[in-house]
Amino acid sequence: VGIQPHDPLKEKLEKLKTGYRVHLLAGRMAFAAERYEEAAIEFKKAADANPDLPAALINLGVTTAKLKKYREAITYFQAAVSLQPENETVQYNLGTMYGFIGLYSKAIEHFKKVLQKTPKDGKTHFSLASIYKADKQYGKAFQHFRAAIANDKGLTQSFIEMAAIFSRARQYREAVMVMQEAQQRYPYNGPLT
Questions:
Q1: Per-residue three-class SS string for 95-133
Q2: Does residue 16 register a pLDDT over 60?
Q3: Which of 141, 72, 60 is nearest to 100 (CA)?
Q4: Per-residue confidence band for 123, with pLDDT thresholds at 50, 70 and 90
Q5: Which of 48, 66, 81, 131 is the most exposed place for a label (fewest CB within 10 A)?
């Protein structure tokens, strides 16, 4: 009863209820539960509450990508990259989204930015190789599939992709040689059929 004294701590606690952190956490929980529509709403609220927060924009981009709204995801990733141009995760995600919508030159540009900072990232080499393959730049695709294998022994899919390129070109002997190389390197992965 009466007049309440000014309490800065109480004000901060009240702001937490409606601030970006609550929405960011709620969005992450919804995302983890695969409730992507709900997650997108929460991440949007977090981004609106703190427009200078790349994490909210990145999470919003990933969530809209899960909803197969690739062009919308690109806008969120572009906003995040404008805040953090050196963020490899955002650059990688932009490359992936541009690849999904068939803008290969843009995808290549963003994957190359990631490789400038992390040249031994096998996953990025594999993704870039896949874009080059889709764009029918087979020589560059081979180069990056090989780099993917060299930097990440788990990317055995690179051998299959290289063999597929040879098969499409009716270079069956080369396709068989690539698969034999894979079998020699990874004999415990089972027979190649």
A1: HHHHHHCCCHHHHHHHHHHHHHHCCCCHHHHHHHHHHHH
A2: no
A3: 72
A4: very high
A5: 48
Distance separating alpha carbons of residues 59 and 182, to the nearest angstrom: 37
Q: If we measure between CA atoms, which residue out of 32, 26, 92, 83 comes closest to residue 55?
A: 83
- The mean pLDDT value of the chain amounts to 91
* Average pLDDT value for residue range 58-82: 97
| One-letter amino acid for residue 155 of the chain | L
Cβ atoms 1, 16 nearer than 8 A: no
Cβ proximity of 97 and 69 under 8 Å: no
Q: How far is CA 81 from CA 59, 107, 113, 117, in A?
A: 13, 14, 12, 15
| Nearest-5° Cα angle at 21, 18 to 78 | 110
Closest CA relative to residue 97, chosen from 78, 122, 120 = 78
* Token representation of residue 88: 């490899």
Calculate the alpha carbon distances from 30 to 33, 34, 73 in Å: 5, 6, 18
Sign of CA dihedral 45, 39, 123, 70: negative
Give me the pLDDT at residue 155, please. Answer: 86
Distance (Å, whole) CA 165 – CA 179:
12
Q: In angstroms, rounded to a whole number, what is the distance separating the alpha carbons of residues 181 and 159? A: 8
> Which of 91, 171, 89, 160 minimizes the C-alpha distance to 129?
160
